[in-house]
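Schema walk-through. Below, the input block comes first and the output block second. Nothing else is stored per chain. Lengths vary across the set, and this one has 228 residues.
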Amino acid sequence: MDSLKVLITNIKLEARTGTELYVRDLALGLLERGHRPVVYSPRLGGLAEEIRRATVPVVDDLSKLSVPPDIIHGQHANETLTALLHFPRVPAVFFCHDWYFPEDYPPPFPRILRHVAVDQTCRDRLVFERGVPEERVRLLYQFVDLERFTPRPTPLPERARRAVVLCNYTQESEHLAAAREACARAGLALDVYGQRMGRPCAEPEKLFREYDIVFAKGRAALEALAVG
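--- output ---
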């Protein structure tokens, strides 16, 4: 396949949330395969700098692009529409990552040729709530970088001793209290990581190796399974 100029959009690139990390890994994967990704977001921060250090251009103003992309990989409605309107002849695919988040709704636009859902629930949102024709929807499940998330060097103990919660949405609540109580009853030490807990995790591939049980969701859960 010839090299493609791929414009990736996202609502923000400030922290290490799900879609932000998805953008980073997608951009680096495209770059490794000989394509030319460019990332657009109106809100840039630490993760944007990390992506740029990997030699992927990152912009918060599409007028900085002097040539149009070949295709738009759209994430989040407003940013996808901004890119489509700025580049009036470029087609797009739109990715839906979330059932709840308002900005994950699919914008009705004729140059969005395919809608992609990362799981069956997101597919249902596209088809049954937003009227996207089934023939234009594809399922593309979450991926794991198996070169980064490698099996732990030693097997799990016969009896678990340490557990960890890794979720950016976790905060002190009845759900976390229930997890703490359950772990205490089982004799498990529990640690909690995530943005809202003030403990973001930049290297989950190392973190998972330190624990016997991981509480996570989405791609983080798959990454924990890969480590074992």
